[in-house]
Amino acid sequence: MAGExxxxxxxxxxxxxKPRLLLHQLEIPFRLVETDTRTGITRQAQYLALNPAGRVxxxxxxxxxxxxxxxxxxxxxxxxxxxLPADKYERAVCWQWLFFEQYxxxxxxxxxxxxxRIYPDRMGKATPDQIAAWQEKGHRAxxxxxxxxxxxxxxxxxxxxxxxxxxxxxxxxxxxGDFDLAPYPAIRDWLARVAxxxxxxxxxxxx
Amino acid sequence: MAGExxxxxxxxxxxxxKPRLLLHQLEIPFRLVETDTRTGITRQAQYLALNPAGRVxxxxxxxxxxxxxxxxxxxxxxxxxxxLPADKYERAVCWQWLFFEQYxxxxxxxxxxxxxRIYPDRMGKATPDQIAAWQEKGHRAxxxxxxxxxxxxxxxxxxxxxxxxxxxxxxxxxxxGDFDLAPYPAIRDWLARVAxxxxxxxxxxxx
Lengths: 207, 207
Fold this sequence. Notes:
Two copies of one chain form a homodimer. Chain A has helices spanning 14-25, 45-50, 70-78, 88-118, 120-123, 128-151, 162-171, 185-195; strands at residues 5-9, 30-34, 58-60, 66-68. Chain A is α+β, with helices and mostly antiparallel strands. Chain A has two domains: 5-78, Glutaredoxin (3-Layer(aba) Sandwich), CATH 3.40.30; 88-195, Glutathione S-transferase Yfyf (Class Pi), Chain A, domain 2 (Up-down Bundle), CATH 1.20.1050. Chain A has a four-stranded mixed sheet with strand order 2-1-3-4, covered by helices on one side. In chain A, helix 1 runs parallel beside helix 3, helix 1 (14-25) packs across helix 7 (162-171) and helix 6 crosses helix 8 (185-195). Chain A binds chain B through residues 52-53, 61, 65, 67-69, 71-73, 75-76, 79, 88-89, 91-93, 95-96, 98-100, 102-103, 106-107, 144, 147, and chain B through 52-53, 61, 65, 67-69, 71-73, 75-76, 79, 88-89, 91-93, 95-96, 98-100, 102-103, 106-107, 144, 147.
């Protein structure tokens, strides 16, 4: 069907949840194609023809062109909407948090969750050294967020933006990677503010 | 001095080189503050007051506000210039490559170079397992770039953009992390195209 967004997604993935959440909040209709990467389907020729990187999420635009990278999707869909700040500096702060998410947060908080809860069979048993490294670096990222959220209701500034969607995705399920959010009251308050936004939809996967 | 951009930078860092390159290509005057992170200066109170993350690069805007994350700087400085595509989809492809750079490229290609050439004293001796992992994942990223650059002169499409700046930074010194670019003719041609752009300035640090 022409004229339709298609999101190739996996239910347990926070990266896939990000564009799904934004599409809902923008009330953009889309077709969700649930793709369990554990079955190897994303490594098969039919999928690789769509996305040579063999990853989800993948967003197919109404004209058939494709986009990968969850945070690039947030920027593409969010541009000129209330979810990307109109002020240039706040927009830059938003970008800053999106890169922080992929470099300093996801590789520890999401990866710990993948190993410990989603793919324990495929990944093998995490070593104590791996777990200690995830904990150290993940908590470092959480402290950076806590500091910011003590001074600002949302990450980019006064308004809820795609930066909050990007960081909410894996922070609100951080306990599934054995991260305790008790020491982070500002983060916990912010999680509740994000979940209370109009059009919010939850992640549905549970371990 | 009000009205001046200040870039806190370290000469050997590709992440610091990115905004320096763009500032030059945009002919924006700026003050460069060379900051050797090996001396611990970025962990001292004076610097932490500027950037609590204790990292370079840090861009201080003419009005005194600060921005971290090299790729956020590229987007901030590049917006509404010829270095960020005017077409929305090409712009999204540009974002896609910026996130790819931070997630799939920098953590292997830049990190190998840091351990092997820049900080061998501080990092300790890299283990064969670490080196093998950097090689495997770094070459995976280089293959993705090679595939793209066989079909397109620049990463985002027909024009040189901030995506090329971001990926050029660590790709053109990949040999310093023991990555051999011989198998990637399209990447090597692209490196030459990037270096031939008007206003290009080289990285000056050499191991």
